[in-house]
Amino acid sequence: MAELTLDHVTKVYDDDGSDIVAVDDVSIDIADGEFLVLVGPSGCGKSTTLRMIAGLETISSGDINLGGEVVTGRPPRDRDIAMVFQSYALYPHMTVRQNMSFGLEESTDMADGEISSVVTDTAEMLSIGDLLDRKPGELSGGQQQRVALGRAIVRDPKVFLMDEPLSNLDAKLRSQMRTELQRLQEDLGVTTVYVTHDQTEAMTMGDRIAILNDGVLQQVATPLEAYHQPANLFVAGFIGEPSMNFFEMETQGDRLSGDRFDYPISQKTREAVGDATNVTLGIRPEDVELVDEGEGDHDFGTVVDVVEPMGNENNVYLSFETDDPADFVATIDGMRSLDAGQPVVARIPEDAIHLFDTDTGAALKNRSLAELEETEPRL
Ligand code: ADP
Q1: Count of domains in the chain?
Q2: What are the residue boundaries of the ABC transporter domain, all occurrences included (predicted)?
Q3: Which domain, by its residues, includes 140?
Q4: Which end of the chain has a smaller Cβ tally under 10 Å, C or N?
Q5: Which residues pair with 61 in a beta bridge?
Q6: 312 and 176: one domain?
Q7: Whose CA is nearest to atom 12 of ligand 1?
Q8: Does the beta carbon of 58 sit less than 6 angstroms from any atom of ligand 1?
Q9: pLDDT value of residue 377
Q10: Domain end call among 204, 233, 262
Q11: Among residues 213, 233, 253, which one ends one of the domains?
Q12: Torsions phi, psi of 370, nearest 5?
């Protein structure tokens, strides 16, 4: 177990003479025992970052520090880390027991009996104790992934590095394995860096999540902070499903003026906006309230375009004008039925809005977590 620090880490690939900056000056401190999820769209530099931590990729500049020691430049075998990949990379001709023992036999001086007992205990912990004599071809995808995990766990490393380990599994198994992996990591207390492009996985698994875009670190935060207090437009749009609604507006004194509607703002919001003239108003779908009638400053007449029933809730796509494509989405209770074409008043409460500087993307105003706890007490 150890803390892991990325200190201004940069990776530049040479692509036929032109530079590709895959990872751009990324610094993250990961605490001992922490589960950190690296998340972002495809090509944002997640795997490259992980591979640099593993020592599988050289670092163009910056340092990686593991347990108080700089490991930059050390080969993978001298870093005391274990990796789990999307492809299980099991040896097909070896049994589960042999796959799990192999690394220990090769790289440690543990006695055979000791290896055997570690492998058996780990296999029991992963509920694959009865599969030890089977070959990978005789296992389901989920079981193969458990073997790959087991192989990493028996090495008792300082850090686990996981690169989309669950993406080959079907949805149900994936969500089951998510919970199991989290419990396992908590029990073992091993510092873990987990890469995924799936924001749901990031939200549900991480102690903290690090959001990358285009090689640049956007924010490192707890899942709830990233959701309610995104640092910028990118994070706000990436985290959450359906995504946050955005409207481009211009500041005009005590109101924001947009193509579709004007939005009066309080003195407090004006102060948050400061000198910014082009702002983007963001509102989470669940914060849009749909009411039958309303003439308040933040009530807007809309028409239901499409209703997407999810069971527990309905995603209602709304247009400001009849027959226009939907402008935004509201999430409401699943038992409440609305019909396409039905007029409805959408309320966008000022305490729930986010504002971003459209030119820089930086957040100007977020809904505060303390405010949220006050308005929505949770038992
Ligand atoms: P992610 O894991 O987030 O999908 P990667 O870390 O694999 O992203 O890639 C980040 C960027 O670096 C991408 O633009 C990718 O095309 C580029 N890249 C990755 N590996 C190489 C390589 N060996 N040579 C050149 N460019 C690469």
Answers
A1: 2
A2: 4-239
A3: 4-233
A4: C
A5: 10
A6: no
A7: 22
A8: no
A9: 45
A10: 233
A11: 233
A12: -65, -45
Q: Is ligand 1 within 6 A of the CB of residue 48?
A: yes
Whether the CB of 209 sits within 6 Å of ligand 1: no
From ligand 1's centre to the CA of 48, what distance in Å? 6
Helix (H) or strand (E) holding 33: none
Q: Which atom of ligand 1 lies nearest, measured to the CA of 14?
A: 25
* pLDDT at residue 364, as a whole number: 97
Q: Would you call 263 exposed, middle or buried from its count of C-beta atoms within 10 A (0-12, 13-18, 19+)?
A: buried
Radius of gyration of the chain (CA): 25
CA–centroid distance, 212 to ligand 1, in Å, is 13
Q: Which pLDDT score is estimated for 355?
A: 97
Query: Averaged in consecutive runs of 10 residues, what is the pLDDT profile of the chain (379 residues)?
Result: 93 92 98 97 96 96 95 91 85 95 88 92 91 94 90 92 88 86 90 95 94 98 95 97 97 94 96 96 97 90 95 96 91 92 95 96 85 50
Contact between 184 and 152 (Cβ < 8 Å): no
Whether residue 308 is found in the same domain as residue 187: no
The CA 235 to ligand 1 mean position distance, Å, reads 21
Domain CATH number, residue 214:
3.40.50.300
Say if residue 186 is in the same domain as residue 285: no
Atom of ligand 1 lying closest to residue 51 CA? 6
